[in-house]
TrEMBL record:
The keyword Oxidoreductase applies. It comes from Vineibacter terrae. One of its GO terms (molecular function) is oxidoreductase activity. InterPro entries: NAD(P)-bd_dom_sf, Sc_DH/Rdtase_CS, SDR_fam. Keywords: Oxidoreductase. Transmembrane segments: none annotated. Belongs to the short-chain dehydrogenases/reductases (SDR) family. It comes from the Bacteria. This is SDR family oxidoreductase.
Length: 249
C-alpha cells in the first residue's frame, strides 16, 4: 500500500531532528500527523508551521499515550523517540540514565504499539516503522547501555512481524548510522568538544536522509515489506581490528 493510500500517521520524538523533518514530509504528502514529544514549545511551533496535531507527553507514560491516541485511526506509526546516556562502560551507567533509556527506548515503543496496533489489526492495514541504531546491531564503543536498548528494538521488530503475521500490517526497522541531529552532543559534558568529536569535519547523515528512507519503505507496494534497512554515512564503517598488546610488551 503506497503512502498516498494512508490517511493518518503518528510520529514520536517529533520536536526536532528526524521526527520534525518526518512530520513536515508527511504533512507535505497530505497526511494528518499526530506529533508526540516531551517538550511542548518546539512541538507547538511545529504545529503552527505544519498543521500537525501536537501531543506534549512522555512516551514512557502508557496512560498518557493511550489517552492522547484514543480514537485515532493510525495507518502509520513511527517510533522515533530516543534517549541516550553519556559514553562510558556499561557498569558506569547510572540508575537515572538506565531508567531514562528503558522508559523511552523500550517502554515508549511498546506504549506506541499498544495505543495503535489493535486498531490497525481491526482495519487490517498499517505500517509500523521502528528507528533502531547501528549501536543495536554492532559493537560500538562508548554507548553500551544505549546499544542494549536498541538491540531490544531490533528483536522486537522481528518478533512483531510474527505477532502480526497475516494481518496485512508491515513492520520496518530503520537502522541509521550517525545522523547530525544533535543527540550526540548529550554524550559529553563539553558541547563544543562533542561537536568536534562527532560532527565537525565529518560528512554525517542528515535528518532528511532518514526521512527519505522512511518514505521509501512507506511508498513500497503492499506486497513488499522492507523489514530491515541499514543506512550508513558513505565515509563511515563499523568494526575494526583493535588488538591489545600483551602486558609488558
Amino acid at each position: 500500500m503506497a503512502i498516498d493510500a494512508y490517511r493518518t500517521a503518528v510520529v514520536t520524538g517529533a520536536n526536532r531532528g528526524i521526527g520534525a523533518a518526518l512530520v513536515r514530509a508527511l504533512r507535505g504528502r497530505g497526511l494528518l500527523v499526530h506529533a508526540i514529544a516531551r517538550t511542548a514549545e518546539p512541538l507547538a511551533a511545529l504545529a503552527r508551521d505544519t498543521g500537525c496535531v501536537p501531543h506534549a507527553l512522555d512516551v514512557g507514560d502508557r496512560a498518557a499515550m493511550m489517552a492522547a491516541l484514543d480514537g485515532v485511526e493510525a495507518d502509520i506509526l513511527v517510533n522515533n523517540a530516543a534517549a541516550v546516556a553519556t559514553g562510558g562502560p556499561s557498569y558506569e551507567t547510572t540508575v537515572p540514565q538506565m531508567e531514562d533509556l528503558l522508559r523511552v527506548n523500550i517502554a515508549g515503543v511498546i506504549n506506541g504499539l499498544a495505543a495503535v496496533v489493535p486498531g490497525m489489526k481491526a482495519r487490517r492495514r498499517g505500517h509500523i516503522v521502528n528507528l533502531g541504531s547501528t549501536a543495536g546491531l554492532h559493537v560500538i564503543p562508548g554507548m553500551p547501555a544505549y546499544g542494549m536498548t536498541k538491540a531490544a528494538i531490533h528483536n522486537l521488530s522481528q518478533t512483531l512481524r510474527l505477532d502480526l503475521h497475516g494481518c496485512g500490517i508491515r513492520v520496518t526497522e530503520i537502522v541509521p548510522g550517525r545522523v547530525e541531529t544533535g543527540i550526540h552532543l548529550r554524550l559529553m559534558a563539553d558541547q563544543a568538544a562533542a561537536r568536534r568529536a562527532f560532527y565537525d569535519d565529518y560528512a554525517s547523515l542528515q535528518p532528511e536522509d532518514i526521512v527519505a528512507a522512511i518514505l521509501f519503505v512507506l511508498d513500497a507496494p503492499q506486497r513488499m515489506d522492507v523489514t530491515l534497512m541499514e543506512v550508513m554515512p558513505t565515509d563511515s564503517i563499523y568494526g575494526g581490528a583493535a588488538f591489545a598488546k600483551r602486558a609488558g610488551a
